[in-house]
Target: lytic cellulose monooxygenase (C4-dehydrogenating)
Amino acid sequence: MKAISSLIAVAASLSSAIAHYTFPNLIINGVKTADWVNVRQTNNFNTQAPVTDVTSADFRCYDSQTNPTAQTINIAAGSQLGIGCDNTIYHPGVVNVYMAKAPGNVSTFAGDGAVWFKVYQISAVTNGGTSITWPAQNLATVTFTVPNNLPSGQYLVRMEAIALHTASTYGGAQASLFLHCGQVQVTGGGSGTPGPLVSIPGVYTGNEPGILININWPIPANYTQPGPAVWSG
Ligand SMILES: *[C@@H]1O[C@H](CO)[C@@H](O)[C@H](O)[C@H]1NC(C)=O
Ligand SMILES: *[C@@H]1O[C@H](CO)[C@@H](O)[C@H](O)[C@H]1NC(C)=O
Model:
């Protein structure tokens, strides 16, 4: 019996390893870009392993080992930007998309300081403790509208999928985060002032109720999306 349950545990960890994912491309005007062309190649491009330390430098773009060069692709303000997954967002969890405006050429922009604002999120749906569902789960593409009022210019776009299947301890069975930075040039933008602005890393401690959470039992009665409010322009 013990042997069987440890076999089951091994099988479960293997299946969760192959169920990991990256977000290597963007979808602009319905056209998917080639992998790792407009997205900075992440350290996990071939392992698909998540970031687990939300305070690490790699929590920003996860590219410390790849020294990536990416190309910047145009997108019109007010149009739809898709972010493609190489698998599906297999695990239960939530999504945040952040952007940061480069002062000049985004290719040489690191994203230091309080420069990031949230443009999109997909949270959990709760029902007072009888059920919790995850609308982001199993998506192959995350699509949002680039705010009309976003000033024209070059931006990093940072995808963040927070997997919460084993998120109940800090530094143990913890949240797994899958993320990247893409490079876009927003055209035809407006004169909005995006905010609130946060630093990444810095935006989370890892102790947020939406990151340090047992999603299975008791069923959470409510869910607090990590990070600032969405700026929709
Ligand atoms: C931005 O920098 C990259 C890399 O140095 C260069 O290839 C690209 O032409 C620059 N883009 C603009 C719009 O200046
Ligand atoms: C649910 O709401 C309570 C009261 O505001 C809060 O303390 C708790 O952290 C929330 N739970 C989650 C998982 O967000």
Summary: Residues 102 and 110 are 8 Å apart (CA to CA).
